[in-house]
Amino acid sequence: MIGKTLKLYQSRHDSVVVVSMQGSLDHNGASIMEGACLQLIREGDSRLLLDLAEVDYISSSGLRSLLVVAKTMKAVQGRLALCRLSPTSKEVMALSGFNTIVNCWEDRQAAWVDLMR
User: Can you list the alpha helix ranges (DSSP code H) found in 1-117?
Assistant: First the structure.
């Protein structure tokens, strides 16, 4: 169901923080995700893996928030990766060109290996 509240789940694997999401990256969800990720960065985390397997919708607000997180990570010389995007989310990333800004991986393991380089 598009428009449901975004839920975030965080876990830590070595020096990588995995943020799994469930719901929509619409205006409200984007704000939740952006705030949580920026807080992690402020706390000193420099490797974030965003697992989008259960994200059912990404709006322009969602893309904007992902870009804010990506730019903030770059500013602190951190690393960001996305993984497990749905076919629709992959298409949104490709059409927007976002997949040229942030690495998008099929699974967590590949993303984790990339972040640990």
Answer: 27-42, 60-75, 87-96, 108-116
The DSSP secondary-structure symbol of 86 reads: -
Report whether 103 contacts 79 (CB < 8 A). Answer: no
> pLDDT tens-digit profile of 97-112?
999 999 999 999 999 9
Cα separation, 3 vs 25, whole angstroms: 8
Closest CA relative to residue 73, chosen from 13, 19, 2, 5: 19
Longest dimension (CA), the chain: 37
Give the pLDDT score at 5: 81
Range 6-21 average pLDDT: 96
User: Which 3 state secondary structure label does DSSP give 63?
Assistant: helix
Fold of 7-106: Transcription Regulator spoIIAA (3.30.750)
| Annotated domain spans of the chain | 7-106
